[in-house]
Structure formats: C-alpha cells, structure tokens
Design brief:
- There is one protein chain.
- The chain is α/β, with parallel strands linked by helices.
- It has two domains: 124 residues, D-Maltodextrin-Binding Protein, domain 2 (3-Layer(aba) Sandwich), CATH 3.40.190.10; 126 residues, D-Maltodextrin-Binding Protein, domain 2, CATH 3.40.190.10.
- 30% of the residues lie in helices and 29% in strands.
- Strands 1, 2, 3, 4, 5, 6, 7, 9, 10, 11, 12, 14 and 15 form a 13-stranded mixed beta sheet that branches. A two-stranded parallel sheet has the order 8-13.
- α3 crosses α11.
- The chain is elongated, with a radius of gyration of 20 Å.
Length: 300
C-alpha cells in the first residue's frame, strides 16, 4: 500500500507528494508530482478542475465513511452537472465497509477515517490518500446545562460509571448513551482517544451515521453522543468543550483538541482513468473549496 502525503504546492507544479509504503514499513524517500504518479497529464485535473472531465464517459462507485459524504456528494454533483455522461454514486456504510469494498473491487473509491489495519494492508493492494483533517465532538442536546467536560468524565460516562447528569453538573436525569456501530472509524478513533482499553457501556445505543447521530441527539434531551465536527449544527446539538478546548477544526489541526483524525480515500494501485480524474479533482482547488465548505481542513 502506498501512502500519499502532501509535500508542496507551487507555481507551475500542480501538486507534489512524498510517496511512502504502509505504516508498518519504512517510508521511501522521494518526491514526485501526483499527476505523474496517477498517469494524468499535469495540465488536467489539478489545473483545470471540471474541464478535465470534458469528453469523459463512465460510472464511479464511492462508499465508506459517512464523514466524507458532504464532500464526495457535492463534488459528484458538480461533475455530473458539468458532464451528464459521468455518473458517480456516493454512499456510506462506514470506514471498514469502504476499505473492504474497494479492496474487493466492489467500488472504485473507499472512504475511511483511519489507516488500514495490518490485516487489511496484507489483504488488499490499496493506495491511501489523506485529503482532510476532521475532529470528533462530544455532543449533547442544546438545552443541556452541561457545556464542558474533562476527558475522564467523558470516559466514565461512556463506559457507564457516570449514569446521571447531576454527577457532572447537569439535571437529575439519567444519561442516555449513543455511539457509532462497529466498523465506524469515528467510533474507533473516539475509543482510542477517550476510552483507551475500556469498552463502551452495554446500554449504549448504536447509531449508523453522523447525520443520524445529530438527529437522534437533537430529539433526546438526556442524550450524549459523538460525531464528526464537520457535521455539527448548533441548532440541533451542542458540542461539549473538552478539557477546556473548544471542539473545532482549527484546534484539531493544531493538535490542541485531542479527538482528531485524517480523512482518507483508498483506491486500487491500478485505478481506472475516471478514478484518477476524481481523486485529482478532490485534491485540486475546487475540491479544496468543497472540503472547507463542508467544515473540514484540507491537507492540500
């Protein structure tokens, strides 16, 4: 598996990357132009945006992490409106599902909020392309009196040691726990950063996606959950200040906010021409704008 990292961007060069092997192997030490890596002329995707799809026909299937959906769906819409001969289907399913589907050649691009596991890296020949930084916010109902928690309080809540809001400064009400399903990178990162070796409480209800989490927490006055910062909506949920740090993408980028991760696209090491065009479009200036508009921090 190759990991593609942003290195530089300059006049006359669309994008320059350091190419390395998987996290379990030592990195290579060279830099190349990403357009050349993907065998796309430098004058296309990065430099021309939607113009690079002119005269192109075909279909593209994208699936995986739900944090990616706003960016992927928006860019797919723009491409199809520019060229109706290109059809792009974007769906969720979770990070693990995205990796499995692209690894099994069921989809062209698998989205994930994490790197491959050792088993996945051994099973699939995939290229990893990080494109954005995203934080994960602890969220409660907007009317909840609790606005700030420590990491330790959050850990005790989600493992079931703290069961009443009164124990952390709220009303005398039972805490209703909501978490993401197995296979979700949001769940995996949250557990690693907050729970450590502990597991989620048995009474935690499972939610399929970030948008679903937002809706459910907005309905339940006693709820607590977690979701991608890019999906926050202050009219529906309140993001809890964690260890005195406001959960936003700027604090995720400078590492002062602890629950953060990169968002990845995974593709075959021998991708189709349309897959290459789409990846280049995501990493170009128009993709950059869509990533920012979705509430994430671009890595390019």
């Amino acid at each position: 598996m190759m990991i593609i990292r942003l290195f530089a961007k300059g006049k006359g060069v669309c994008m320059c990357f350091v190419i390395g092997k998987s996290v379990n192997r030592s990195p290579l030490i060279f830099c190349t132009i990403f357009s050349l890596l993907l065998l796309v002329p430098v004058s296309t995707a990065f430099c021309s945006g939607l113009k690079s799809f002119k005269g192109t026909r075909g279909s593209l299937l994208i699936a995986g992490g739900t944090a990616h959906l706003p960016v992927m769906s928006e860019l797919a819409r723009r491409i199809h409106e520019s060229n109706p001969q290109v059809n792009i289907s974007v769906s969720g399913g979770g990070s693990s599902a995205g990796i499995e589907k692209v690894g099994e050649n069921i989809v062209d691009i698998g989205n994930s909020g994490r790197l491959l596991t050792k088993d996945e890296a051994a099973a699939y020949a995939l290229t990893s392309i990080p494109f954005a930084i995203d934080g994960i916010a602890v969220v409660v109902h907007p009317t909840n009196k609790v606005s700030s928690l420590s990491s330790e309080q959050v850990r005790k809540i989600f493992i079931g040691e703290i069961r009443n809001w009164r124990e952390v400064g709220g009303e005398n009400e039972e805490i209703h726990l909501y978490g993401r399903k197995l296979g979700s990178a949001t769940r995996k990162v949250f557990r690693e950063k907050i729970l450590g070796a502990d597991d989620f409480a048995a009474n935690s209800k499972v939610v399929d996606a970030n948008n679903a989490m937002k809706v459910i927490v907005s309905w339940d006055l006693q709820a607590i959950g977690y979701l991608s910062i890019g999906h926050l909506d202050a009219t529906k949920v309140k993001a809890v200040i964690l260890d005195g740090i406001i959960p936003n993408q700027a604090n995720s980028t400078n590492s002062s906010y602890k629950i953060s991760r990169q968002l990845y696209m995974y593709i075959s090491e021998t991708p189709t021409a349309l897959t290459r065009l789409f990846v280049n479009y995501v990493l170009g200036s128009e993709g950059h704008d869509a990533i920012v508009a979705a509430g994430y921090i671009p890595l390019h």
